[in-house]
Amino acid sequence: MSTVVYCLCALTSLLCSWLLLHGYRRSRTRLLLWSGLCFAGFFVNNVLLIVDLRLVPERDLSIIRTLPVLVGLALLVFGMVWDTDQ
Description:
Elements: H1 2-27, H2 30-55, H3 62-85
């Protein structure tokens, strides 16, 4: 049952990322770009969570799993600071 929840979370993150990046492509609002990239990091994290807990449970991938979230959040913070200055 938990695998279904993890997959739904991954699909939701992917959908959010796609919608935000599609909105960026149409309007060129940079905050949509940074948010879309952040949700792409969330998607990668969710996929790695499934791999970590279901496919290779004997290995601990928690450090590798948190890197995409860290990069995604760093991009979002960078984008918010960058757009505030201009």
